[in-house]
């Protein structure tokens, strides 16, 4: 078992790794033509498949280089991402391959998504079988995979019901709406029921207007104000401040990540989550655990909050649930469900047969106790090895996290190290203010792959000098 310690609950502004600004040219750039005179070794043939009965718009097959893709992306994609200059074309297990044929060990998992790695045979088979059978019908009809997935989530958690959506931010939007509706129906004779929310420093809950209002980094919020009103940010771990504000009776719900991912791999303490639970119960506020990043096996527990012995009223899930297909889930108790009526929320795509079949394949592997034990073991091994190899380095301030969500806090920006690792065949992420290396490998990674990854980080550390 892990002991969850209070690991440096410093106040940082949450900065996710997509924070880099891009300079946009005012004038529409000229369309660049692809060069067809590149060396064969630097080409990958991309075929645009068209069916016979669709007018041929993009029927030409073309030879594409990394430079072409990057230039084309810069021309036609809205510039919200500070992308890494790599064009990934395939993956197998914990390895990714780029357009130039380079191989990388993947310690990013598509930002904590590909729990089973890339192209897991059972996951692929589940998707192919379901795609051949029924991919989408909307939520007007009942479908079997949605019910089967919900049954699994309910059977293994505190929750009684599930609402499906398509992403982490949507799972949190549903939690916001359900909290408001719960408070309205709990205070039928009060024209001013609790509608406000508490969130914490370093938190990341998503990019849509409601979830964005709960996301701590001002840089993400201020250009889009007014966001949802009524959110107060308290210091992550500050029990007294949370108790004070919750007892005001104005709080519909408290949103908290048991382990903060984007914010910099900060773990809550048992005392903090317990105090939130008690204060919410006293005041009638709901406690929402955002396990979009830390949930579903990443900590070595199926749900991260199991490590704390505290259960929420609502839990949100997304990233790894369908192993790489888009899904979100908002798990609620019967008490919360009782406040939700027909028509209160919905989604065209959510919980479709295809994505749910993929999620069942993921869930049935990850929820196996021996699989979870292997994640815990590999996580311990990773942290021990990192400590052994890196702790003497003057730039390494702290190595923290648990299971396979691990942070290496540096005293300098992590980007040069990330770049050097990539050049050496290892993909890693940053977190926090950009000074934290975030390691979130596929949960199926082998000890040998982890050892090789640590070796590469160790070999590249000198670039920080
Ligand atoms: C804890 C947490 N909540 C919510 C989100 C938002 O998820 P999505 O990007 O799927 O909307 C993220 C994404 O990083 C997250 O880490």
UniProtKB/TrEMBL annotation:
Pathway: Amino-acid biosynthesis; L-arginine biosynthesis; N(2)-acetyl-L-ornithine from L-glutamate: step 4/4. One of its GO terms (molecular function) is pyridoxal phosphate binding. CDD domains: OAT_like. Gene3D superfamilies: Aspartate Aminotransferase, domain 1 (3.90.1150.10), Type I PLP-dependent aspartate aminotransferase-like (Major domain) (3.40.640.10). It holds the Pfam family Aminotran_3. Its EC number is 2.6.1.11. One of its GO terms (cellular component) is chloroplast stroma. Belongs to the class-III pyridoxal-phosphate-dependent aminotransferase family. This is acetylornithine transaminase.
